[in-house]
Design brief:
The chain has one helix at about 1-25; strands at about 30-40, 45, 50, 55-65, 70-80, 80, 85-90, 95-100, 110-115, 125-130. The protein has about 130 residues and is α+β, with helices and mostly antiparallel strands.
């Protein structure tokens, strides 16, 4: 009797562990892959990804700029409405923007980024990196 009980307990434990692992995989943070040529004027919208975390900020890991020193503005959008502040950068590195309201409210929603050259930049610019909403 004890052996059967221990066996059931072992199977239950393994099943619970497997479900926990699947949950971790299902909620791995997704990223917006950015590889764009920004026009001299105007903006570019990226593809959308689901926000899987509850963070109140989004991160942009800029890995390449085609014209160093160019000023670049960026922000996140939800259903055509800006949902973060406007971030700005002029070199590679990590940059943050903060959600206008509680970032937890966007968890499970598809967000995309808008990226453009800033008011002081009057030429096209290539940008590569990842945005983690």
């Amino acid at each position: 009797m004890k052996k059967r009980m221990l066996k059931k307990l072992g199977i239950f434990s393994i099943a619970a562990f497997a479900l926990a692992l699947m949950g971790q995989v299902a909620y791995a943070q997704s990223a917006i892959d950015v590889n764009v040529r920004l026009p001299r004027t105007g903006s570019v919208n990226t593809h959308g990804v689901m926000k899987t975390n509850k963070d109140n900020d989004a991160d942009f890991n800029v890995t390449r700029m085609g014209w160093g020193g160019s000023g670049i503005d960026w922000w996140l959008m939800y259903k055509g409405i800006r949902c973060t502040g406007v971030g700005n950068f002029n070199k590679t590195g990590f940059y943050k923007v903060y959600y206008n309201i509680d970032g937890r409210l966007y968890q499970g929603s598809v967000l995309y980024a808008t990226i453009k050259t800033d008011a002081n930049t009057w030429h096209a610019c290539d940008i590569e990196g990842q945005i983690y909403p």
